[in-house]
DNA sequence: TGGTTCACG
DNA sequence: GACGTACGTGAACCAG
């Protein structure tokens, strides 16, 4: 017998309204999805809550707040035994148990739905999917439409006009196209494909040897499963034919298993699913119990205080956790000024309105702005428009403020012009393409002239998201923007390691707002247009939103700096670094294109030779660049010993494997290694670098990302100039192509052993500190202390091993890693580590202290106060925790070194100017700075650089900088 | 798009 | 007792 659990509607709601659009939430599917998507969180009483939190966030932000939704219900499985078990007893038999910290959340999702006054439906003997199918049908028959909130592929068979699927985490609507992408057939044929292909997670057998690809092909060819089974004789491939002929019955059973029933007895009339206001007496106490503070705040102001609070149902036995973590209240969704929408964004098309905005911004004292361009390269992209946003009212109080945002289009053009932007070599911003300037735009020169006083006004703070980019664009129009704040950097100093710092992610996280995607306004793939071709109305929505979101993020994040003790990290390191990096990026470095071309030709010739030799030894032709084909040659065909497989089952062919084989005297791996090295050099460096040379300057301009690495290191892209080869002879030839301008030389200054020095400092190891103070060879000293041999006349092998251990310590040593590095047994490695800790017990103490700190606080600190969060420090997987612990040990050292060189970089431009030197800082490679120096100023510049770098921090060990000079980077380094 | 490999500190 | 492992990046290439 079916039993209904649909709650009665509250009398106050009156009559049910008929369905227009029904939302059906696949409750357990959603819970699993949210569980895996969100980091562990706990309720104040310790109960794990992440999946429920994700569920509530979705429910509020996407469903209850969406006025288009009038009917909504959550569907659940009533039990584990259904009619399908009668058809096939092994159905879903090998489902693993859910994770233990998910189990207590199952009952909570029922509570959550009840608290928000959302109907819960379940039906014994049937799965939630059958109920969903049935309600989808009922909705259609009632003349309405239906959205199923689930990412379960089994529900794809229900997609049809009026019924769509929505991924609850990605918020993507899945229509027939998505179904076709997944199953290769239209939605009505999905069950046929599933019946043939089977499903290992649900233990649906299907036809052995036939997967989704083959199944789709067969169904599309024969039209339906039944026709196919009748005409199996026509199938040419013997294996397929046999599989189908021998398993016809099993396939029919499979079809019954995967077909959803849309005729089950519905426990409640779908008209009764109408969206209802939550009852404050139920919702508020429940939210409080879960610790969802922002939601509580919001609903208290929306619904009013509870008048007769109903105590939340008793909580299940909480899972005991060693270190309960707080629910991040700030990440809950919250939308200030909910009546403010994109429709309120303004379009500035005349000078009068622009002047008004500028006056308003000047009066407000803080303005968010963002510029839109026709490319991504900040050195060349042309300015297309500017957006501005204001937040007026009490500082930082998002609830009692008024939002305003506007877009000022400047260089939008009619579509149909030649593709340009990145390909633009003239860079003049003029008549470089066929598109004509659109009407209704203030002339660029006029707008620039009006904006300049605002953007340079020392009394107006300009807030940007990755403002380095905007500063670069405006600099080329003669505007030096300042003073500035950067929400990306504020987020970085607050939350490095917790989340990334792109605007879309921050908007979602802190404002609960999904931003308009660039591809929504500009298209995607080959059809994508540059922003100047986007129509003004769309451009306004997209661009004004950027400034609007930036302003709100600033109001949300900036007040956290002081209480979370990262103000000085932001104000003395990250923010002042912006203009320094900007100058380095726009300076670029000269490369010798002729030299690169020659190298490329050399490499190409040698590669062709090697390829011939390799094919000869292998006995056949194959793609040497394909690890898959190579693995098959080496281990399946040549039957070489010692094949390892990587996690997806294919043969591993990385350098360490090939080196092992080479050491055993096999000729093929030797050639492959050489081929790999040259292919890398040619593909990644010579050829790619030539393409990156800027036509205007004849130099390459990298772009530095300030928030790419959680430790505080910079990252370099387009091109990455932080991984130019240096370790191999062939590779160094590429460095030779980085050259100085005529009359100049390159000066390279790098910190010696900076991370080990920091280790000696923070762990406070007298023996190491003294060795550094004396200027001793630190690896030799370590070897001497460990193995009890004098430094003089030491076996180089011992020094090498000590060096590997010193590095290992920095990385959070493990016996496995050290053994791998040194090519010794794990036992031996373990013994070395033991001996090291015996000699330097302070280092072991430091490592333990650091791990404890990370476990207690969820982050670690560099000596300069940079915070690095360890997201996985309490993960339930031992492997993930160990990973986080090693990262915790490494982060203060790597991050501390990053702090030091950043401090030096900030001081250097001023110091050079003060010494009347014209040297330019060009590149930073983590512990090295590269300068281009007029030949006559070499000595002075070297002295200044060394002095500033060595005094960038005062530690209990000296900082030592080694400098070199040359015509090219290889010589200087 | 994800996995593999390899360049750097 | 088994498992998966050195820390931090970005780019090219292959395969699906």
TrEMBL record:
Residues 731-937 form the DNA-directed DNA polymerase family A palm domain. It catalyses: DNA(n) + a 2'-deoxyribonucleoside 5'-triphosphate = DNA(n+1) + diphosphate. Its EC number is 2.7.7.7. Residues 20-276 form the 5'-3' exonuclease domain. Residues 345-562 form the 3'-5' exonuclease domain. InterPro entries: 3'-5'_exonuclease_dom, 5-3_exonucl_a-hlix_arch_N, 5-3_exonuclease, 5-3_exonuclease_C_sf, DNA-dir_DNA_pol_A_CS, DNA-dir_DNA_pol_A_palm_dom, DNA/RNA_pol_sf, DNA_polI_H3TH. Transmembrane segments: none annotated. It is an enzyme of class 2 (transferase). Keywords: DNA damage, DNA repair, DNA replication, DNA-binding, DNA-directed DNA polymerase, Exonuclease, Hydrolase, Nuclease, Nucleotidyltransferase, Transferase. The keyword Cell wall biogenesis/degradation does not apply. The keyword tRNA-binding does not apply. Residues 308-336 are annotated as: Disordered. One of its GO terms (molecular function) is DNA-directed DNA polymerase activity. It holds the Pfam family 5_3_exonuc. Single-chain monomer with multiple functions. PANTHER family: DNA POLYMERASE I, DNA POLYMERASE NU. Belongs to the DNA polymerase type-A family. NCBIfam families: pola, PRK05755.1. In addition to polymerase activity, this DNA polymerase exhibits 3'-5' and 5'-3' exonuclease activity. This is DNA polymerase I. It comes from Reyranella aquatilis.
């Amino acid at each position: 017998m079916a039993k209904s659990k649909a709650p009665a509607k509250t009398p106050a709601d009156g009559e049910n309204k008929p369905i227009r659009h029904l939302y059906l939430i696949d409750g357990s599917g959603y819970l699993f999805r949210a569980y895996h998507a969100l980091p562990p969180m706990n309720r104040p009483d310790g109960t794990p809550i992440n999946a429920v939190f994700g569920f509530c966030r979705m429910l509020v932000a996407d469903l209850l707040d969406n006025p288009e939704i009038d009917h909504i219900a959550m569907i659940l499985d009533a039990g584990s035994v259904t009619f399908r078990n009668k058809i096939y007893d092994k159905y879903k038999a090998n489902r693993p148990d859910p994770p233990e910290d998910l189990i207590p959340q199952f009952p909570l999702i029922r509570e959550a739905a009840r608290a928000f006054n959302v109907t819960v439906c379940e039906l014994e003997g049937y799965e939630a999917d059958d109920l969903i199918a049935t309600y989808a049908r009922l909705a259609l028959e009632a003349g309405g439409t239906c959205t199923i909130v689930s990412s379960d592929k089994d529900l794809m068979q229900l997609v049809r006009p009026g019924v769509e699927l929505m991924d609850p985490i990605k918020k993507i609507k899945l229509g027939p196209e998505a179904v076709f992408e997944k199953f290769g057939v239209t939605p009505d044929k999905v069950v046929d494909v599933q019946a043939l292909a089977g499903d290992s997670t649900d233990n649906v057998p299907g036809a052995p040897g036939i997967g989704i690809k083959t199944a789709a092909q067969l169904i599309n060819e024969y039209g339906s499963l039944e026709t196919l089974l009748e005409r199996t004789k026509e199938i040419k491939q013997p294996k397929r034919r046999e599989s189908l002929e021998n398993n016809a019955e099993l396939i029919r059973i499979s079809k019954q298993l995967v077909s959803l029933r849309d005729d089950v007895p519905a426990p409640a009339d779908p008209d009764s699913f109408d969206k209802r206001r939550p009852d404050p007496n139920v919702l508020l106490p429940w939210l409080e119990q879960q610790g969802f503070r922002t939601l509580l705040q919001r609903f208290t102001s929306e619904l009013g205080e509870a008048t007769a609070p109903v105590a939340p149902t008793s909580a299940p036995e909480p899972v005991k956790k060693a270190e309960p973590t707080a629910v991040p209240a700030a990440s809950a969704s919250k939308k200030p000024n909910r009546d403010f929408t994109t429709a309120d964004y303004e379009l500035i098309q005349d000078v009068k309105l622009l002047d008004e905005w500028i006056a308003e911004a000047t009066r407000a004292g803080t303005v968010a702005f963002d510029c839109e361009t026709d490319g991504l390269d900040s050195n060349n992209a042309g300015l297309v428009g500017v957006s501005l946003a204001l937040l007026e009212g009490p500082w930082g109080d998002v609830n009692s403020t008024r939002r305003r945002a506007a877009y000022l289009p400047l260089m939008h053009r009619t579509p149909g012009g030649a593709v340009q932007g990145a390909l633009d070599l003239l860079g003049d911003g003029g008549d470089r393409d066929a598109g004509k300037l659109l009407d209704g735009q203030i002339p660029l020169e006029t707008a620039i002239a009006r904006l300049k006083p605002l953007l340079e006004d020392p009394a107006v703070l300009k807030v940007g998201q990755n403002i380095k980019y905007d500063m670069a664009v405006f600099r080329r129009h003669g505007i030096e923007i300042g003073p500035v704040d950067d929400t990306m950097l504020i987020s970085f100093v607050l939350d490095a390691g917790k989340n990334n710092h792109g605007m879309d992610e921050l908007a979602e996280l802190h404002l609960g707002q999904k931003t308009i995607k660039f591809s929504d306004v500009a298209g995607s793939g080959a059809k994508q247009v540059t922003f100047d071709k986007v129509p003004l109305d769309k451009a306004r929505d997209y661009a004004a939103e950027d400034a609007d979101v930036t302003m709100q993020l600033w109001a949300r994040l900036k007040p956290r700096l002081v209480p979370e003790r990262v103000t000085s990290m932001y104000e003395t390191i990250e923010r002042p670094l912006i203009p320094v990096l900007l100058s380095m990026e726009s300076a670029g470095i000269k490369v010798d294109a002729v030299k690169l071309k020659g190298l490329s030709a050399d490499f190409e010739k040698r590669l062709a030779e090697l390829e011939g030799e390799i094919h000869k030894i292998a006995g056949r032709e194959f793609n040497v660049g394909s690890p898959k084909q190579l693995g098959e040659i080496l281990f399946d065909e040549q039957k070489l010993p010692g094949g390892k497989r990587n996690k997806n089952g294919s043969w591993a062919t990385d350098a360490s494997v090939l080196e092992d084989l080479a050491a055993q005297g096999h000729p093929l791996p030797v050639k492959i290694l050489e081929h790999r090295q040259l292919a890398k050099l040619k593909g990644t460096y010579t050829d790619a670098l030539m393409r990156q040379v800027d036509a205007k300057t004849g130099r390459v301009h990298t772009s530095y990302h300030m928030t790419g690495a959680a430790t505080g290191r910079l990252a370099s892209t387009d091109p990455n100039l932080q991984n130019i080869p240096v370790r191999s002879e062939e590779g160094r030839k590429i460095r030779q192509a980085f050259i100085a301008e005529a009359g100049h030389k390159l000066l390279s200054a790098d910190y010696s052993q900076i991370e080990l020095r920091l280790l000696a400092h923070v762990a406070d190891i007298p023996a190491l500190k003294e060795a550094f103070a004396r200027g001793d060879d630190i690896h030799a000293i370590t070897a001497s202390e460990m193995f009890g041999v004098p430094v003089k006349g030491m076996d180089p092998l011992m020094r090498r091993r000590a060096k590997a251990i010193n590095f290992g310590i920095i990385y959070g040593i493990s016996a496995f890693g050290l053994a791998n590095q040194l090519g010794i047994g794990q036992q031996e490695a373990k013994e070395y580590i033991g001996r090291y800790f015996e000699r330097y017990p302070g280092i072991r103490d430091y490592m333990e202290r650091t791990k404890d700190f990370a476990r207690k606080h969820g982050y670690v600190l560099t000596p300069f106060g940079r915070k690095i969060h360890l997201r996985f420090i309490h993960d339930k997987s031992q492997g993930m925790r160990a990973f986080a612990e090693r990262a915790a040990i490494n982060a203060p050292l790597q991050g501390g070194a990053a702090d030091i060189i950043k401090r030096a970089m900030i001081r250097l431009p001023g110091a050079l100017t003060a010494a009347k030197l014209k040297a330019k800082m060009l590149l930073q490679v983590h512990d090295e700075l590269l300068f281009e120096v007029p030949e006559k100023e070499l000595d002075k510049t070297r002295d200044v650089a060394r002095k500033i770098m060595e005094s960038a921090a005062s530690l209990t060990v000296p900082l030592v900088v080694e400098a070199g000079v040359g015509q090219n980077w290889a010589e200087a380094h």
